Amino acid sequence: MIDRTIVKQIRDIAGKENVFEDKETRICYSYDATNIKYLPDLVVYPRTREQIAAILKLANEAKFPVIPRGAGTGFTGGTLPVAGGVVLVLTKMNQILQIDRDNLLAIVEPGVITADLQKEVEKVGLFYPPDPASLKTSTLGGNVAECAGGPRAVKYGVTKDYVLGLEIVLPTGEIISTGVQTVKSVVGYDMTKLLVGSEGTLGIITKIILRLLPLPKAKRTMLAIFPSIEAAATTVSQIISSRIIPTTLEFMDNATIRCVEDYLHMGLPVEAGALLIIEVDGEPDVIAREILDIQKICLANRALEAKVAKDDQEAEELWKARRSVSTAVVKLNPTKINEDITVPRSQVAEILRRLEAIAKRNQLVIVNFGHAGDGNIHVNVMIDKRRPGEEERAHAAVQQIFEAALDLGGTLSGEHGIGVTKAPYIAMELGDMGVEVMKRIKKAFDPNNILNPGKIFPDHKARGARE
User: Fold this and answer.
1) Structural domain boundaries of the chain?
2) What are 433-453's pLDDT values in tens digits?
3) Pick the CATH number of 218-322 from 3.30.70.3450, 3.30.390.10, 3.90.1150.10, 3.40.50.720
């Protein structure tokens, strides 16, 4: 536990109304979307960069951990207080400071909800593309820390492609700015790119400069149903090789379709092998041709149906199936191990075949969906811990899933990050020396290992109170 004199100092820094040590509040910030729980010693809502800097300087003196947190929507335990300490909740730093229409950029605080920024910039004809599934809840600071992606990544890229600059409080309490508000800059090391995706281990974000785009004039959406996984995966490859880059190209396998239909009763064909939700955007005459070309490719690959939405309302109905997946699949089994491997787009069909074999080999239910257009498959191992041996088989399957992704030229994580859940596997991709170099960077930024300890690196021993 943190010494009482330290608690008093933190109250003096942040204001007693922003500091909580009651167990009820601490429990609320003991877990994220992984539902793994570690109880923090204190919860603090800072309002300014100066408050954050003062708390971090105090943490270095008194040697207690500090864990930055947004909305807690992460899937790898990136905000878990595994070593106890102080959770800094940044959701009250939630102002959109500027929307610059002339220079196509926005300046925001880290607690701004992703969807709120999207709505505001679209009011003035601009567009912020990154769209993680949690966009109505997740904060931009969390998106930057994890380098969040989303369905539109196939055409527009991920969060790192839109971060021009950051204001950061370093783990030792100093405040720096990285990046610029210009299109070009090659002054020194690219600190911005290093900090994006660093999972709150190298600094706490207090301000973000984001690149914006002109809002596309129109979009069209299609739902395509296929008799097999292979037919859907081949369609994905052919769409991309035809030089059409959809805005989104989302995939659901048969198990996912069944779960969603059982949950929503929207008339999905439960015998279908797979479905694709495809969207294109841009100039109206161009996307009209593209959606027809995509429809032809789907039908040429034995699509049972390739339905183009007539209007925005019908498009929204098509998207309901994809957005309900996470809620729907938990009906299969009470525990979900959610991995987000990514392979080259040409290997989507092969990785799906290997996932099917892994499920059979380990006698497990594995549900697959995700962003087929960029090769990012969300692999959900559904288990019931009450069944003897099932959890052990699941962990064996996860190892095999990662081995299969790497064997096909892929990666352990496309958008969820490493956190604590993937830390034991990181050397599989980076090698021991790659991990060692990252540890040296961490040490240079954070010599006392104050900021978000226990994340990314596999050799940390949790010492917090796990609930």
Assistant:
1) 4-91, 107-214, 218-322, 327-407
2) 999 999 999 999 999 999 999
3) 3.30.70.3450
How far, in Å, CA of 120 to CA of 111, rounded?
15
12-51 pLDDT tens trace: 999 999 999 999 999 999 999 998 999 999 999 999 999 9
Mean pLDDT, residues 218-228 taken together: 96
Rounded Cα–Cα distance for residues 196 and 163 (Å): 8
- Amino acid of residue 119: K
Comparing CA positions, the residue from 99, 124, 127, 95 lying closest to residue 112 is 95
Q: Which residue has the tokens 């539109």?
A: 152
Is CATH 3.30.70.2740 what the domain over 327-407 is classified as, yes or no? Answer: yes
Q: What is the pLDDT of residues 108-130, one digit of tens each?
A: 999 999 999 999 999 999 999 99
- CATH fold of 107-214 reads 3.30.465
Closest listed residue to residue 118, CA positions, set 103, 100, 131, 137: 131
Query: How far is the CA of 28 from the CAs of 21, 96, 215, 392, 444, in angstroms?
Result: 11, 26, 38, 29, 32
What is the rounded distance in angstroms from the CA atom of residue 288 to the CA atom of residue 34?
41
Quick one: average pLDDT of 260-277?
A: 93
* Straight-line distance from the first to the last Cα atom of the chain, in angstroms, rounded to the nearest whole number: 15
